[in-house]
Design brief:
single chain; 273 residues
Length: 273
């Protein structure tokens, strides 16, 4: 469950697993709710979510950030570093403060020297919003924006599959694909038209940052090995074939009966003559 995973995330920091992925290797930390949320949503996966099963064999297609799956399903192996048992390493900034007109910048460089093979960089910004007016359409009172600049080609990556800033949500995630080792990224958090003098936020970024590779065999996990859609398609095809065969067989029998009856009638008519 989400609540159980959130509890594990808190335990991870309180028992000093961060940042080296071993218990007691780091200082105990009490993290904010915003950081827990950022970690949960940063590692969420949408790439192998095939659709929503509405029953009756109907699967509704879904896409990332839609109203059905949102950021995706939670996945701790892509959220926090556990030495030898996760795909990524994480860097976090908690209870950070930003003010209007003074962007905050955080620089990270990927490192695959110890065998990490993850080829994406994911960064998520979360802040806690005050309550908005009932019936609002633009409900964000403190508008923060996340941008990620990739130094190798100066590309600016925007959040939530958008081509520009997001002014509607208080969670913003940027995913950069096809990332290599020794690439530098600048994460920029900017505030626009704050409702107060400042806004506190949490930021997390995951990727390869010097960790070892995942030794777990996840090839048969329930999501990657899920063939239910194909099985349903096969079953549906088989059912259609059976129904068509039965209908076809019934038609052949009926036609045979009609032909036999017509022959009987013709023979009887010849005998009457």
């Amino acid at each position: 469950t989400v609540s159980g995973t959130a509890a594990i995330i808190r335990q991870y920091f309180e028992e000093g697993y961060y940042p080296k992925g071993r218990k007691g290797s780091g200082a105990p930390r009490s993290i904010s709710g915003a950081l827990v949320k950022a970690i949960l949503m940063n590692g969420a996966q949408t790439n192998n979510v095939r659709g929503v099963d509405n029953g009756g064999g109907k699967v509704t297609p879904v896409t990332a950030y839609d109203n059905t799956i949102g950021f995706g399903r939670i996945d701790l192996s892509k959220s926090l570093y556990l030495e030898g048992y996760s795909d990524v390493q994480a860097k976090v900034w908690d209870r950070q403060v930003v003010v209007d007109g003074a962007p905050r910048r955080f620089v990270v460089t990927t490192d695959t020297s110890n065998g990490c093979t993850f080829d994406k960089l994911s960064a998520t910004l979360v802040w806690m919003e005050p309550g908005s007016a009932v019936g609002c359409t633009a409900c964000v009172l403190n508008d923060l924006d996340l941008r990620v600049k990739q130094s190798s080609d100066n590309t600016i990556h925007y959040p939530n599959n958008l081509k520009g800033k997001d002014s509607l949500n208080n969670v913003e995630r940027v995913i950069v694909p096809d990332v290599n080792g020794n690439e530098t990224f600048t994460l920029e958090v900017e505030a626009t038209n704050l409702d107060g003098p400042k806004q506190t936020f949490a930021l997390v970024v995951t990727g390869c940052f010097g960790g070892v590779p995942n030794t777990l065999d996840t090839s048969q996990n329930v999501f990657d090995a899920d063939t239910s859609k194909e099985d349903k398609d096969d079953n549906r095809t088989s059912l259609i074939i059976i129904i068509c065969s039965c209908v076809g067989g019934a038609l052949v029998v009926c036609l045979g009966c009609v032909c036999y009856r017509n022959k009987r009638r013709a023979a009887a008519a010849n005998m009457d003559r």
